[in-house]
Backbone:
């Protein structure tokens, strides 16, 4: 009986992509979602696939300390480090939410991008704002 040949990219082999050649990402996006309780930083590529993410909770902060500026800086630093290693040259930043960590996370991304040579093209605030609010009764 013939043995089946597994595909290189199949899930049965446990490896989906090539590990010898890491992905080179030319352009990416950073999404900062800052609430009062937590700050989440996500980096994606042009196709919308998540490259890395980090939050203040995943960095080890618990309780009310997750909403602080230092926790947001740490989360942003962890998220951008993986993107820097994959060779991103250009990026856009989109900030959402009213939390304390929005400015601190943006500052951490700016500092890391200057050190690594990432060109930040646009910094955009995409916080949803009501145009007229709910109808009064």
Residues:
């Amino acid at each position: 009986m013939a043995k089946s040949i597994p595909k290189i990219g199949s899930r049965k082999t446990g490896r989906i992509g090539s590990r010898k050649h890491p992905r080179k990402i030319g352009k990416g996006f950073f999404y900062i979602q800052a609430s009062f309780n937590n700050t989440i930083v996500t980096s994606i590529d042009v196709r919308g696939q998540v490259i890395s993410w980090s939050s203040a909770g995943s960095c080890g902060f618990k309780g009310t300390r997750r909403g602080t500026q230092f926790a947001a800086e740490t989360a942003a630093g962890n998220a951008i480090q993986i993107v820097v290693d994959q060779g991103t040259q250009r990026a856009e930043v989109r900030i959402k939410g009213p939390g304390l960590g929005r400015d601190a996370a943006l500052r951490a991304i700016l500092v890391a991008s200057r050190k690594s040579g990432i060109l930040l093209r646009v910094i955009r605030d995409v916080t949803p704002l009501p145009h007229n609010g709910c109808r009064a009764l």
